[in-house]
Structure formats: C-alpha cells, structure tokens
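Reopening: Cytochrome C oxidase subunit I still failing for me.
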Amino acid sequence: MSTQSPRSPQSGKPAQRGQPATHGAPNGTPRARQGSWQRGRWMMLLIAFICAAPVIASYITYYVIKPKGGSTSYGTLVEPQRPIPVSLTVIGEDGKPMPLTSLRGRWLLVSVDGSACDKACVTKLYFMRQIRATQGGERERVVNVWLRTDPSAVPDVVKHAYDDTDMLIADPSALAAWLPVDSGTKLTDHIFMVDPNGNLMMRFPKDPDPSKIKSDVTKLLKWSSIG
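Support: Ran it again with your exact input. Result attached.
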C-alpha cells in the first residue's frame, strides 16, 4: 500500500518527512497586532520621557533643590500679586491729578517717602537710579517712581540730582493699603517692583544690597518680553 506525505495546511505542499506541519501566526493575526501595538506604546512613552526630562529637571532644581539660600530671588515675591488700585490717584509733576495706573506698560521701581527726603530717602533714590542705569540697553523699560506722601517742596539738590525719577504725590493711607511691608518695618523702608501689567510683584528689604536688586531686575528683563 502506497503512503503519501502529509500536506501543509497553509501551502498544500507535502511537509518534509521527519518535520511536523507548522501553524505559524502571520503578521496580520490579532496576537501579532497586539505585540506591535505594545512596542509602539513603549516607544511613545520613551520619547515622551526624553522630551519631558529637561522640564522635570528644572522643576526639581527650582522647587526641591533650590539655589543656595533657599530662594530664587533676592526680593520677596508678593503673592498674590496686587494690581495698582484703579482708585489710586496721584498728583503729577505738572500739578495735575492722574491715575497711577497710567504708568502701566513698563517696569516700575517704587519708593515711598516724604517730600523733605532725608538721607535714607536719598539713598534709595540713588540705588534706584544706579540699578536702572546698569541695565544698559534695557534701561528704557524701567521707570523710577518716588511716591511722595505730602505736597511740600522737594529740595532743589534732590530734584536736580534725580530728574529722571517721576516724583508724584500720593495719599499715604492709600499707599499703605496697597503696599505690604515686612514685619517690624515701615513703608518708607522698602523699594518695590511693579510689573508692566500694573501688578505689585516684589518687595526688597530694608537697607538693601543694590547689586542683588540689580540681579533680580536684570533677570526679570531678560526672561520677560513685556514692558
């Protein structure tokens, strides 16, 4: 009696003697498609991790490790930001009232003092002038503002030395409601920073280090395109 070789179910050709007929899974089967999908998923996750790594690293550096001293700036960030009160009206150098909000559009370094301007007042005005001057080509983005708490005349020597400073008269009670101070200090001890949107965003300490204020201002101008 003659014998015939078994035929492969896929090709119909005789299977090699001594080898079992195979039932391979072609690429189009559900199992193959699932394996391909899983490999693609892991590849996408790997690409996403690589792209997110710089962001994750900067987040850890900023919020966990932090620079020496535990802070990213010399000045104290005012949180939440305090916008210039719409009702805060000041008297301009031309003697006419104007809303302080009209100064929005540039960065403001703000000092508060009486018109007599004692030694501490002059020191702050000097620091502000030097900080602005050292910003080079970016200095036009910064305006120095002296908010005077009374209508008395400013000494001529001060007026002429700081003629690039806006000297405006403001109600001290309105300023006290807007500008927060450190514990144990008063309003006239600080220099404040207001952003171009009109938000009070930073307060510098009493008897400040002007080089550190300059560093903060330089970073703000560098990383912000507004103002």
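The beta strands are 76-83, 89-91, 97-99, 107-113, 142-148, 166-169, 191-194, 199-204. If you still see a failure, please send the error message rather than a screenshot.
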